[in-house]
Design brief:
The chain has helices spanning 31-38, 50-61, 67-80, 83-98, 103-106, 127-134, 155-158, 160-174, and strands at residues 114-119, 143-148. It is mainly alpha-helical and 175 residues long. It has 2 domains: 21-101, no CATH class; 103-174, no CATH class. A two-stranded parallel ribbon has the order 1-2. Helix 2 crosses helix 3 (67-80). It is globular, with a radius of gyration of 17 Å. The protein starts with 30 loop residues before the first helix and ends with a helix.
Amino acid sequence: MWSGESFPWARPWTTRASGAGPWAAGTGWSSAPRRSTLSPRVGDDWVVPTEFVDGVLESGLGTTVTPQTRQFWYAEHQRNYTGDEGRHRLRVASINLRDRDGLHARLDSIQCPVLWLHGTADQVYSIPNAEEEITMFTNSAGAELRIVERGQHFLSASDPDTVNAAAIEFIDRWQ
């Protein structure tokens, strides 16, 4: 079973993006601020800015992130992405996820069953995008798209019960 989530900075300038959320005009999440934030070399004391983490959280979980959750992810990002090495890893991950790292060219080689769960409140990618991309799994034993009402981009965090139940049912069916 193939699964994966992307980050909120994934391909903001394409028509595949939802057109809302972090890449809407004027939000500061266009590719230019990311380049200026993540391109220059930095010192050992650099940590990922909390504003960057806020953008990730809002894009992935919506605007209802609790202060405790926000603080947890600030600490995790700042622990994992420090100094120039951390900045470089964050930049490379952002670029690979934004560009989908050649993902589309590889989808026809996936032969296992695919379950794609997509939330209606996803600010990163639209339902029409999901409907189009599920058809790219041309050699999958079965590619299935399920829409989750009010689900966010980080669906396993916003709707864990729905995701877990769907995954269990899907795996049981394909075993």
